[in-house]
Amino acid sequence: MRKLLFIAVLICSLSIVAQNPEHPEIYIGGTFGATGSMVTFKPTVGQTYLQGYNGGVVFRFISDKYVGFQAELNYSQRGWNESGDLYARQLNYIELPFMTHFYVGNKTRFFFNIGPKISYLISENVLVDNAVGSTEVQHTTKIQNPFDYGICTGLGLLFKIKPIVIQLDTRASYSLSDIYSNNKKDYFDTSNNVSVSVNLAILFQLK
């Protein structure tokens, strides 16, 4: 069911690219922001948000009035921070979101992005370990599934000062995959990445 949802959202997003606009708008630029992340463990693990950063490059293609397509290539810090500063682990991903871009306005625009994303874990770091001698699975086991896929969505505001665009947006991401194996013999039924971010971007209009 999760994979079918991911494929459906991906097809909807990519269908925007197939259009043939008469007067397209094309943008490219960079983005940087702060993240807060958790992992939705089941059985539950008490947590607070783990702070981190993300950043990368942005490509936006406006195919029609009020709608377009946006793709990014980002470095993103995720992970979890257990309550009481017991344990914290940072997960570092390279991610590729494909999002449909809806907007209203001209020089000042409000926009809404939604679409699928895929990610790959490139490294993991234990930031806090006050659980000496712990046998908890999330303390003793490295990430078992480095490939991650899910859905992201966000709201933002941008200002066009040709050829530059300055924008601020907030984003939420939910993984449909698990970081740990979830077979019947495994401890965790689910272990999904969840993150929110606030991002500042500068884009250049090429066309």
Task: Describe the overall structure.
An 8-stranded antiparallel β-barrel has the order 1-3-4-5-6-7-8-9. The protein has 207 residues and is mainly β. Helices cover 8% and strands 65% of the residues. A hairpin with a 2-residue loop joins strand 3 (50-64) and strand 4. It is elongated, with a radius of gyration of 19 Å. The relative contact order is 0.21. The mean pLDDT is 90.
Compile the SSE list and pairings.
Elements: H1 2-14, E1 25-42, E2 47-48, E3 50-64, E4 67-82, E5 87-105, E6 108-129, H2 137-140, E7 147-161, E8 164-175, E9 190-205
What's this entry about, in short?
It is built from two helices and nine strands. The protein is mainly β.
Mean pLDDT: 90
The secondary structure category is: mainly beta
Strand order of the largest sheet: 1-3-4-5-6-7-8-9
Span of the ends, CA to CA: 40 Å
- The global form is elongated
- Please estimate the helix content: under 10%
Low-confidence residue ranges: none
Biggest sheet, open or closed, and with what strands and sense? Answer: 8 strands, antiparallel, barrel
How many beta strands in the DSSP annotation?
9
Q: Give the percentage of residues in beta strands.
A: over 45%
Please tally the helical runs, counting DSSP H or I stretches of 4 or more residues: 2
